[in-house]
Known about the structure:
Elements: E1 6-15, H1 19-27, H2 32-35, E2 39-47, E3 51-60, E4 63-74, E5 79-85, E6 93-102, E7 108-117, H3 128-145, H4 151-154, E8 155-164, H5 168-176, E9 190-197, E10 200-206, E11 223-231, E12 236-241, E13 248-259, E14 264-274, H6 289-322
Antiparallel strand pairs: 1-7, 2-3, 3-4, 4-5, 5-6, 6-7, 8-14, 9-10, 10-11, 11-12, 12-13, 13-14
Amino acid sequence: MPAERVHSARRTVSIAAPAHVVYGMLADAPRWPVLWPTYVHVERMDFDGAAETLLAWEFEDGRVRSSRLRRTLRPQARSVDFEQDDPAWPGDTVAGCWSVEPDGAERSLVTLRQETPHAHTGTSAGPDGPDADVAERLARLCEAAERWDRLDELLLAFEERIRVEGPAELVYAFLYRVEEWPELLPHVDDISVREDRPGTQVVVLDTGAAEAGPPAGPDGTAGSETVRLCFPHAGRIVFKETAPRGPIAAHSGEWSLVPDESGLTVACAHRVLLREESVEPAPGAGALPVDARRQVRERLGRESRETLRLAKWHAESPVRRLR
């Protein structure tokens, strides 16, 4: 990148978390969707122990943006070099480095250096965009890392599965055509789907004022917005709620189909980060994190099982009619 076209930004912050914890969060990119609000999904394409290539999808300003990241991980130095290509700016690459230094046993000094083509700044010379981007990324890292000693009780991961003796194509079609769910699923009252690009859906789902669901909004409904990335050839649909309510701070997951010689297994995996300030009032006064975990697990698990059972019926009914 010619020097005259690049803006350099650099900032260092102090974070109340050990250096190895902070570095681990930076290095573990597939876990970003449940820790950082903008990330919907991060796919590791290749990794040789040091160099890796990632595909990342982020949701900002109502739109999904994808990018390719090439990273070099240096765990001994606690640094990550990166180059990020944005399809919206062909030929331009954002490059930089994260570095983490111990600042005592329980604190870290984290530096983010980033070089941004001027095409990304919004003006030919305005540095505010890149400087603000660096500051925002550091602030998000700080917010996530400073919960490090409570993450074990705040993070929740589980999966629901069902066996289907029917074509994978019918199961996938049912999961993909989410706009048909209100007529079929008891926990869905209404739904709207926007698909700006094939396979990239923004879904607004109204579950009604469900007794076990999230707190109702001002209109008396309990709805949510979810971004879904659909990969039909891989039999996968990745999803993330953009603004979960109640005890849930972040919620991402995946529908996956694994065919075999006689049918397939369909799974719905969930990854949840509980909201600390909502843990007590959500299940009731004096409740503990374990109560919030149980409530969220039961609700999401029940809704997933309802959907899986209907997907199974949808796929197996044509098979039964042909016998």
